[in-house]
Amino acid sequence: MKDRALKIGLLVSGTIVLLIMGGIVFTLMSGALPTIKEYGLSFIFSSEWNPNPDREQYGALPFIMGTLMTSFLALLLCIPLSFPIALFTGEYFKGTKAASFISTMVDLLAGIPSIVYGLWGFYTLRPLMVELGLSQQGFGVFTSALVLTIMIIPYATSLSSEFIRMVPNDIKEAAFAMGATRFEVIKKVIFPAAGSGIFASYILALGRALGETMAVTMLIGNVNAIPMGLFDSGNTMASVIANQFGEADGLKLSSLITIGLLLFLLTAIVNSLGRLIIKKLSA
Amino acid sequence: MENTIIKLNNPILKLKDISVSYTAGKYAVKDVSARVAMNSITAIMGPSGCGKSTLLRAINRMHDLYPEIKVEGRASLDDKNIYQMNPMHVRKRIGMVFQRPNPFPSMSIYENVLAGYSLNGIKLKKQEKDKIVENCLRDVSLWDEVKDSLHKKGTFLSGGQQQRLCIARSIALEPEILLMDEPTSALDPIATKHIEDLLLELKKRFTIIIVTHNMGQAARISDYSMFMYMGDLVEYDKTAKMFDSPKDKRTAQYLSGQFG
Amino acid sequence: MTNTRYRQIKDKAFFYTVCAITAITMIPLISIIWELIKKGIKHINFSFFTEVAPSTLDAMLAKTAGEGMPGGIANGIVGTLLIVSVASLIAIPIGVLAGVQLAEKANSKFSHAIRFTAELLNGVPSIVLGIIAYAWVVRPITGGYSALAGSLALAIMMLPLIIRSTEESIKMLPTSLKEASLALGASYATTTIKIILPSAMSGMFTGILLSISRVMGETAPLILTALGSSVISLDLSKPSSAVPLLIWEFYNDPYLIDMIWSSSLFLLGLILLFNITAKQISKKWKTQ
């Protein structure tokens, strides 16, 4: 009967989704096996990366550091920018044409593909860095983080804006009725009420930044070493995979897949954390 | 559990000890037995939560949708127990009109009337289709108002018109029994009057069971009335007789407005 | 200064700061679009759409002869069309059915697992999906880089969005719709296919358009899967070009670098088109 066919279809498609996730984990882990067998946990802490077949040695630390530095810096820079925008659309101009205009602009930012951000970063930001004397050639952690900041603003803004909008009118009005200024209502009423939601949105934005590839690849300088300063070049987990995956095999391939596994775990944990907080809030 | 089993020559529907429970041990409808007369309007009345909608929905097996709901008892249509029939067949013979008008938004008015056929995979020639659409829309007094917009979606119609469309959709399948779950409670008084007049016409061809929270409506249009209270069928009698001299104290209290 | 006056000044200052920062953040957006238009529009002509990407040699020769940049991005356009269409063909049926499952049996353990997994999939970095598609298709199935591998990576990216928008659109339908259809004697399958899905169509369609626009601009997973190609090809088992891949190739070639702006402009325009269409549909649907 047609009913059975549909039920089977629903079951199969749901199972496919679960299998895909299972497959991803399995593939990453089996691909990483040779590297884990060779280095064990020290892979994470080693900073040697030498594909030369005579003295092959692989370690992920430079890339882990690169990823963490660029992403956290991007998050730090993103907060003072996205919070005002969220207030603009969620409180000050809530429901007006101005707010929907800004929301549309922010959505546009989200739609620009990563490679285009990379190009813009390369041709506009980088020369700026050089002109300001901050960096010799303009590459490095800071430039990459700057572009990342702009890329994650939409994610941080749209969610925090929603949480700010959801703060019930009656507690705001109660504060106004006592003579508080708008700023004070934001500080004393809105922020405490929407705070955890805003926090969760930043965590999700961080998750987005961690996985970003193209723009960072084009701006970070492609140097397999731990960046010691903000304006040093380096590499991220995503960018080293993008740069070195083609033609890789053997231990090198396995090491790159291991880095992929680490990246997967990192983003999964961060994203799950963010979603968990949001779920707790809507319960 | 005090029922009055009306003596009928030709009951179309026989309910015996129908009970419906939402959770184990808690009954929304308890041991309802009744015989419904053919070509009549039977009203089911009672205060909120008395189980009238639950009883109604047991008759066309709507509760099958919800696995946690248990239905016990026997309901016979032509001496065949509907709980042992294929539910899809049951619903072709027992139709239902709901409280909120719900024409299918993805279909035009024309297609809505014929929805019973298309959903059941019954193929009709264009001539037959046109005839059914016109006849049913005429039966519900909607034809003149929509004959020039048959292929538009029904969302521009007023609430009362949409409900009449839903009735047309149900009668297109020529069911023997038409179940109506508070069909006018979302409509204004004028639309309500139109539908009530419509039902008085339709009972000549169909048997109508109507749940209503409006005593006046029951008094106006129904031949027989059931009064339910907390899951029990308290009283079942000819409407005129029940309103005039109710046998049970609870019925009298309800009818005099002592509880709503 | 009185306390009140001080507070009022703080209030106003904060407000202006918020507005200023909001305006400043629009600058990168305007800058990017401006740059693309300024530098890219001059290369967009008829041959842009009909000719394949120039090779380094072609570009070198043209330069020495004092001519403009030859060629276009036809192989990239066809490649993107191919890869994204196949990805949609994979993702839409699975995504819609999974969404129906979530909407119909919202609280079963199975549905919770699917929902959780879909959310998790949504956060997987695209480069990791490239590794996966490499492992699942490039190695074992097509014996080399292929468009199919690229489609698989993109399909996995599209799934969570399609699942979620299907689930949400169905959940928004009044329950009486399903009941009315069943009350007419229709089966579950018929009700779902002929009533529920058509009624939820706008929401689902919006989700599909948005997921397409999201993957059209992806480069990283394609580097590991479709690799790129200099010819127009519809062969799924062979490497394929795509607009983002071409941009990457142009970027890495000093003679072809001028092409990056026009191709980026085209790509952005395409993405915007899908986004705006999706928004229009969703707006029309909400007012209905």
Could you spell the SSE succession of chain B in H and E letters?
Answer: EEEHEEHEHHHHHEHEHEEHH
Overall mean pLDDT of chain B stands at 90
Oligomer type: heterotrimer
The rough form of chain A would be described as globular
Total helical segments of chain A: 11
How much of the sequence lies in strands of chain A comes to under 5%
**CATH class call of chain B:** Alpha Beta
Q: Domains counted in the coordinates of chain B: how many?
A: 1
Q: Structural class of chain A, please? A: mainly alpha
Write down the Rg of chain A: 23 Å
Largest sheet of chain B: 6 strands, mixed
Beta content of chain B comes to 25-35%
How far from one another are the termini of chain B?
A: 21 Å
Q: How much helical structure, as a percent, in the residues of chain B?
A: 25-40%
Poorly predicted regions of chain B? none
- Can you tell me the CATH superfamily of chain A? MetI-like
Low-confidence stretches of chain A: none
SSE arrangement of chain A, N to C: HHHHHHHHHHH
Q: How does this structure look, described?
A:
The complex is a heterotrimer of chains A (283), B (260) and C (288). Chain A is mostly helical. Chain A has one domain: MetI-like (MetI-like fold, Orthogonal Bundle), CATH 1.10.3720.10. In chain A, 77% of the residues lie in helices and 0% in strands. Chain A is built from eleven helices and no strands. In chain A, helix 3 (61-92) packs antiparallel against helix 4 and helix 8 runs antiparallel to helix 11. With 260 residues, chain B is an alpha/beta fold. Chain B has one domain (11-255): P-loop containing nucleotide triphosphate hydrolases (Rossmann fold, 3-Layer(aba) Sandwich). Chain B has eleven helices and ten strands. In chain B, strands 6-7-8-3-9-10 form a six-stranded mixed sheet, sandwiched between helices. A four-stranded antiparallel sheet of chain B has the order 2-1-4-5. The two termini of chain B are 21 Å apart. Chain C has two domains: 1-43; 77-287, MetI-like fold (Orthogonal Bundle), CATH 1.10.3720.10. In chain C, helix 4 runs antiparallel to helix 9 (188-216) and helix 5 packs across helix 7 (147-171). Chains in contact: A-C, B-C. Chains A and C meet through helix 1, helix 3, helix 4, helix 5 and helix 8 of A and helix 1, helix 4, helix 5, helix 6 and helix 7 of C.
